[in-house]
């Protein structure tokens, strides 16, 4: 079992694991019992960010519509439309040694698809978490349970991997946004239609 983090806590992934190359970021959630009349479809995404805190190009946004970064370093394993069942609902694979040099942070987000139309928000989502495990050994390295801090938000930044003095570290962020995916995209420099 990995380290359980609290909001704002940072931990090094590579310091105690020299040679670590491949990790999987698992994101999960449960939907509470309130019936909104339609199913919940939560979507995980990764934004590959430069020093500016923005993407350098549209392809630096990896999500259900762009499953693999051109470098091969970040790959979304696929869209889960219901969030049913135990464990990870969506996964993003990271090859740390293939991340382009200009990328200093990878932010992991979850948004609620069509939240406004469906009158849904993160206040109706329980047990949201992000965890990272070593793909080669299957060993869980860390887990961050977001808790029940959200009410009206339709998007959340769960956490981020970042480079610091040659080490890969993780920061448990847990901050919510209103405005869904469009708000996150605007924040990270992605143009949306």
Number of domains: 1
Task: Report the radius of gyration as a whole number of Å.
Answer: 16 Å
* CATH topological fold name: Lipoxygenase-1
Q: Could you report the average pLDDT, rounded to the nearest whole number?
A: 89
Shape: globular
Number of strands: 12
Strand order within the widest sheet?
Answer: 1-10-9-3-7-6
Q: Which parts are unreliable, with pLDDT below 50 for 5 consecutive residues or more?
A: none
Question: Any idea what the CATH architecture is?
Answer: Sandwich
Number of helices: 2
* Helix content bin: under 10%
**Cα distance, first to last residue?**
42 Å
What is the makeup of the main sheet?
Answer: 6 strands, mixed
Beta-strand proportion: 35-45%
Quaternary state of the chains:
single chain
Q: Would you mind describing this structure in some detail?
A:
Helices cover 7% and strands 41% of the residues. The protein has a six-stranded mixed beta sheet with strand order 1-10-9-3-7-6, with no helix packed on it. The chain has a six-stranded antiparallel beta sheet with strand order 2-12-11-8-4-5. The chain has a single domain, classed as Lipoxygenase-1. The mean pLDDT is 89. With 193 residues, it is mainly β. The relative contact order is 0.26.
List descriptors.
mainly beta, Lipoxygenase-1, six-stranded antiparallel beta sheet, 193 residues, 12 strands, Stress/Tellurium_Resist, 2 helices, six-stranded mixed beta sheet, 7% helix, Tellurium resistance protein TerD
Summarize the structure.
The chain has 193 residues and is mainly beta. It has 2 helices and 12 strands, in the order ββββββββαββββα.
């Amino acid at each position: 079992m990995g380290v359980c983090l609290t909001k704002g806590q940072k931990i090094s992934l590579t310091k105690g694991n020299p040679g670590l190359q491949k990790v999987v970021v698992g994101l999960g959630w449960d939907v509470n019992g309130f019936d909104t009349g339609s199913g919940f479809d939560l979507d995980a995404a990764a934004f590959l960010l430069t020093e500016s805190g923005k993407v350098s190009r549209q392809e630096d946004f990896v999500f259900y519509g762009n499953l693999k970064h051109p470098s091969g370093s970040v790959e979304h394993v696929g869209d889960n439309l219901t969030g049913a069942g135990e464990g990870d609902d969506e996964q993003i694979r990271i090859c740390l040694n293939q991340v382009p040099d200009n990328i200093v942070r990878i932010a992991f987000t979850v948004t609620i698809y069509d939240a406004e139309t469906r009158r849904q928000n993160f206040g109706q989502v329980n047990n949201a978490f992000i965890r990272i495990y070593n793909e080669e050994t299957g060993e869980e390295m860390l887990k961050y349970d977001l808790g029940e801090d959200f009410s009206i938000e339709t998007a959340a930044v769960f956490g981020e991997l970042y480079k610091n003095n040659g080490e890969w570290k993780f920061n448990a962020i847990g901050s919510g946004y209103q405005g869904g995916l469009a708000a996150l995209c605007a924040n990270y420099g992605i143009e949306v239609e």
